[in-house]
């Protein structure tokens, strides 16, 4: 799930900068794919926010596939992800994400957007790259896919990125407090069969 992102730099960069008090920038890309660079928000050495550019997805030595997602239910305990959860949490600001869903017998691509121009996806850093987190879907999203990104409200970014492990753990089951705007999108090539979507 969530194997493509939509990023619209204006007004996303300005809103993230204003919300988090940093100079955040990114470039518009309506079809961000795994292995491409993402602008993420992480903790700096002086325990404040900073922007970092990281590749999306990691391929551990034990896996033949690229891992781009980690389940929120197991991210704190699975050996591949638990260090990143404990020490390197990040948020990935984006404008939306895409899902493929079969509707009336036809496979279609749908764009999921928030009521605000910015969505904050929870992620963790693994081997110098970012892995985004997924959770069970809301009722609205369950009609399209059995998983969805772990979306944080802007006031949950501080406890996620700068907080304690317990504060992060409390956010692993957080539900979005708003409905998403869901629209049809042009289908690009199908996600690679070599990609593992946790």
UniProtKB/TrEMBL annotation:
Its EC number is 3.4.-.-. It holds the Pfam family SRAP. It comes from the Bacteria. Keywords: Covalent protein-DNA linkage, DNA damage, DNA-binding, Hydrolase, Lyase, Protease. Belongs to the SOS response-associated peptidase family. This is Abasic site processing protein. It comes from Vibrio ulleungensis. The lineage of its organism: Bacteria, Pseudomonadati, Pseudomonadota, Gammaproteobacteria, Vibrionales.
């Amino acid at each position: 799930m969530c194997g493509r992102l939509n990023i619209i730099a204006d007004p996303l960069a300005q809103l993230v900068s204003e919300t988090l008090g940093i100079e955040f920038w990114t470039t518009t890309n309506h079809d961000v794919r795994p292995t491409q660079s993402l602008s993420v928000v992480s903790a700096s050495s002086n325990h404040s926010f900073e922007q970092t550019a990281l590749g999306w997805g990691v391929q551990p030595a034990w896996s033949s596939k690229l891992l781009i997602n980690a389940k929120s239910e197991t991210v704190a305990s699975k050996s591949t992800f638990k260090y990143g959860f404990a020490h390197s949490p990040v948020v990935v600001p984006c404008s939306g994400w895409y899902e493929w869903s079969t509707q009336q017998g036809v496979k279609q691509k749908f764009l999921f957007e928030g009521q605000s121009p910015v969505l904050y996806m929870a992620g963790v850093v693994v081997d110098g790259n970012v892995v985004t987190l997924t959770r069970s879907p809301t009722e609205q999203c369950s009609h399209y896919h059995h998983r969805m990104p772990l979306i944080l409200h802007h006031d949950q970014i501080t406890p996620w990125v700068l907080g304690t492990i317990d504060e992060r753990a409390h956010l692993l089951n957080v539900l979005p407090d708003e409905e998403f705007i869901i629209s049809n999108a042009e289908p690009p090539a199908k996600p690679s069969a070599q990609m593992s979507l946790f």
